[in-house]
Amino acid sequence: MEDFILYFKMGLTHVLDFSAYDHILFLIVLAVVFNFKVWQKVLWLVTLFTIGHSITLALAAYKLVQFPIDVIEFLIPLTIFITGVLNVIVSKNTLSKNTKINLFFAFLFGLIHGLGFSNYFKMMIGQEENKLQPLIEFALGIEAAQIIIVLGILIIGAFLQGLFKVSRRDWIMVTSSIVIGFAIQMMLARVFW
User: Which CATH architecture has domain 2-189?
Assistant: First the structure.
């Protein structure tokens, strides 16, 4: 049980660490186009991201895949930027039209984000023979943290749109634009060529 709590907390703090806010930014742009009416779709997005994240962590832990960290560190803010730009482009569309592309991006970008954390995860589990159990425990922590963040975004969106009558389009465009600004700064700081 101690190991479960240890790895679960590591997954939780991995996402909720404000000094490594790229994960939070991605979750914001992923969730901002949704509301509580479609909470099942949002849960699928979060879960697909965790699955993608876990797949690349597992592949890296078993030394089946390895990518240059500087390339991955650049691709992470690029995924945030692309998601934000797509939000701005399709901000007028209905929620259901965005779902398929968001599901695809959640999984694909989860793969990339998992690679960004793979070196730390490999050091964290060391030479343990059983890598699968810590990975599952870590993934559960990631999933819990992501649900917390997405729930926060949905609450803020509902609050602003309900109480202050902010239009759904403006909520998506302003939030996504702010995140795009952060992503551009991160990309410029991580240029690898």
Answer: Up-down Bundle (1.20)
